[in-house]
Every structure is written in structure tokens, then in C-alpha cells.
Design goal:
binds zinc ion; 9-stranded mixed beta sheet; alpha+beta; 12 strands; 2 helices; 3-stranded antiparallel beta sheet
Length: 189
């Protein structure tokens, strides 16, 4: 951030009274410009005993497989956002079953919420965002080609739950430690 979005003055990054972290702030109009994590919302679409994956037609991770998801918009609920992303990426309609995973991506300041979602029918089709859409059996999931850690985490937890005959909500985190990305498995909620 370089300029104040309120008055256009150049901003300063540094300590302030009553703030526990340094912040961008405007010396002219005194606005503090907070920077907080972004929320990503998505679906783990289910049809019978299969899960839906989409091959990404856009960057980042072009060509890899993902479950539908994207940035939450203002003025929508997380469930609405998840269903909207599903529509944008697959033209598919879902019934949201419940919150499946909460995944913190600390290196990029994001929180990913994935909902278990049942496909309403099989009218999905490829879109500008997805070059291929496939319903996979567990044994056919292309684990080595999954685009994002949060998607792999959601898929892994879904198959674990299914074996146990349970539906749970899981938390996890991706952290960067010693130049290495590590997934931390959180507690079941
Ligand atoms: Zn200002």
C-alpha cells in the first residue's frame, strides 16, 4: 500500500499507540489501513460415491485439479459464495450440506472454507474457468495433481470421514517453516 484510499496522501508503515502490530496509516487524515486475511469459499461437490474435481483453465495452478472455490464477495453469506463459485466454475447447482473444512493458509493470509455439497443433477459443463470436470471415485483421484493444499486436505478428510461413517468439520493450516511448506492437521470440531 502506498497511498491513502481516503485522502490520497502517502501512507506510512509503523507502530501506533493502541495497536499491537505495525500498521499502514495516513499521517494526514489519521486513517489506519488494516490488512486482514481474505476468505476463500468453495464446495466439495458429491454425487453418489463420487467427488467432483475441475481442471483449472486459469492461473494460478493452470491445468491442475481443484474443487470449486474462490474469493468471497461482499454482501453474500459463505454458503451463497460457495454455491456461486460452484456455478461460475461448473454451471452446476448444489445443495449445501454443511461446513467441511476450515483451512488457514498462513503464508498468503487466507482462510479457506469448504462446504460439503450435494449436486442437484448432472447438468454441469465446462466453463471459462474449468477445461474439464470429472466425477472421481476415491481410487481415481489424481492426488499428485491437486492444485491447492486446502483442496487436498478437504478431499482427504472427506474420504476418512466416509470410512468412519461420520460427517465432521475439520480444521487445518498450511505454514511455512524452514523454507518448507507444511500442513498441520487441526482438531476435529
Ligand atoms: Zn488519508
Amino acid at each position: 500500500m502506498k497511498f491513502c484510499s481516503v485522502c490520497g496522501n502517502e501512507v506510512v508503515f509503523g507502530d501506533l499507540e493502541h495497536e499491537h502490530l505495525p500498521r499502514f496509516h495516513c499521517p494526514n487524515c489519521k486513517t489506519i489501513h488494516y490488512e486482514n486475511p481474505k476468505i476463500i469459499v468453495g464446495c466439495l461437490p458429491i454425487w453418489e460415491d463420487k467427488v467432483m474435481l475441475c481442471r483449472r483453465a486459469i492461473e494460478p495452478q493452470h491445468g491442475l485439479w481443484n474443487i470449486p472455490g474462490g474469493f468471497m464477495e461482499n454482501n453474500e453469506s459463505v454458503e451463497q459464495g460457495a454455491a456461486r463459485e460452484m456455478w461460475e466454475e461448473t454451471f452446476g447447482r448444489v445443495t449445501i450440506v454443511g461446513l467441511h473444512t476450515v483451512f488457514n493458509v498462513l503464508p498468503v493470509n487466507q482462510v479457506h472454507l469448504h462446504f460439503l455439497a450435494e449436486l442437484q443433477d448432472l447438468t454441469y459443463q465446462i466453463t471459462p474457468e474449468s477445461s474439464e470436470i470429472v466425477l472421481f471415485n476415491e481410487e481415481d483421484v489424481p492426488w499428485a495433481e491437486i492444485a491447492f493444499a486446502s483442496s487436498a486436505f478437504a478431499l482427504k478428510k472427506y474420504f476418512e470421514d466416509r470410512k468412519l461413517g461420520k460427517r465432521r468439520t475439520h480444521t487445518g493450516s498450511l505454514i511455512r517453516e524452514d523454507q518448507k511448506w507444511t500442513i498441520i492437521d487441526g482438531l476435529n470440531l
